[in-house]
Design brief:
By secondary structure, the protein is mostly helical. The protein is built from 13 helices and no strands. About 14% of the residues have low confidence.
């Protein structure tokens, strides 16, 4: 009898167990595992991991400068201009890395030019840590309130004379103010480059023992001296023109309105262009001026949007704040984009004039 029950039990074990019976036999461990497969945690998508916001630049050192500028609370127009300069610097540095990899910068002149360019940016926006930071103001809306922002007594004198002469309309005063600011920036860049060249000379003078300067290095040094000489001559010519304009006003013969375009046109007229090339360059400058005017328009809109955003934020209306933030972000992005295009176009035109002036065209 007992043996029969045992045989029956053995036969039952040979049969496959139903899923429900198996679940009951395995107890709570199986239930927990089974539930885990179909649980909400297993089937609902995991929340997206928090990602760091994309870096503004691909080069870490430029990101550090950008973050420092933001911590300094630079005005939106200065930040926009800085962003443009850093983008151009980044583009040029990547080009240089490619040249270096191909062995095409043996004399190191391109590398030295990039170092000088970065030094100008640091000084221009007060990022060089100096107390007498030479930050160039790009906000030409409130030009009538602070003559000291020109930082040069000679320029301040010209500005005061023009303002009190009665020879300028409001639009012409705006134009003259931009020209004076542009001239100030050129002088600042010249001094930064002069200082950098002076440090190079001191390193040779202070070296222990004779310094073996190769022909290539000597040529690169001579090229830097020539560049400074050109800049100084342009500064002198520019100041003479500003002095003439501040005394006489703008005549009907004025070809262009924007300071950078005026500079390029003056240099082009003294370059080795043929008559046909000069006329072609004149037409391109007209298109370039339109591009600058568009950039200036967005800069003004960005400044207005910035002031409005600060005003709205003081009231705490979240809907208005969000709407104004969105508009400000759109204007900021557009201003950066146009600033980059203007700066790149400016570099291309300057290079053409420079080559023509050195009979390389």
């Amino acid at each position: 009898m007992a043996s029969g029950k045992v045989l029956s039990a053995l036969r039952a074990l040979r049969q496959p167990l139903s899923p429900l019976l198996l679940l009951l036999l395995l107890g709570p461990w199986a239930a927990a595992g089974h539930a885990g497969k179909y649980s909400r945690e297993k089937n609902e998508p995991a929340p997206p991991s928090k990602r760091e916001p994309a870096a503004e630049f691909r080069m870490e050192k430029l990101n550090q400068l950008w973050e420092k500028a933001q911590r300094l609370n630079l005005p939106p127009l200065k930040l926009s201009d800085l962003h443009t300069d850093l983008k151009i610097q980044e583009r040029d540095e990547f080009k240089w890395k490619k040249l270096k990899a191909e062995g095409l910068d043996e004399d190191g002149e391109e590398e030295a030019r990039l170092v000088r360019s970065l030094s100008v940016i640091l000084a221009k926006y007060g990022l060089d840590g100096r107390k007498d930071s030479r930050v160039v103001s790009s906000n030409f809306i409130d030009h009538g309130t602070d003559d000291n922002s020109l930082e040069d007594p000679r320029l301040e004198k010209l500005w005061h004379k023009a303002k009190t002469s009665g020879k300028f309309s409001s639009e012409e005063l705006d134009k003259l103010w931009r020209e004076l600011q542009h001239h100030k920036e050129k002088v600042q860049e010249y001094h930064v480059l002069l200082e950098a060249l002076g440090r190079t000379g001191e390193s040779h003078e202070n070296a222990i023992g004779p310094v073996d300067v190769s022909g290539v290095q000597a040529e690169a040094l001579a090229s830097r001296h020539a560049e400074l000489k050109d800049r100084l001559r342009n500064i002198g010519q520019g100041f003479d023109r500003l002095r003439r304009v501040s005394h006489q006003g703008y005549g009907a013969e004025t070809e262009f309105m924007e300071p950078r375009v005026v500079d390029l046109w003056d240099m082009a007229k003294s370059a080795n262009f043929t008559e046909k090339e000069l006329e072609s360059f004149r037409e391109e400058l007209k298109h370039f001026e339109v591009k600058i005017e568009k950039h200036n328009h967005y800069q003004k809109q960005l400044e207005i949007s910035h002031q409005k955003l600060k005003h709205v934020e003081s009231f705490g209306d979240q809907e208005h704040i969000t709407r104004n933030k969105e508009r400000y972000a759109m204007l900021e992005e557009k201003t950066k984009e146009l600033g980059y295009k203007v700066k790149k176009h400016m570099q291309d035109l300057s290079s053409r004039v420079s080559r023509a002036r050195h009979n390389e065209l």
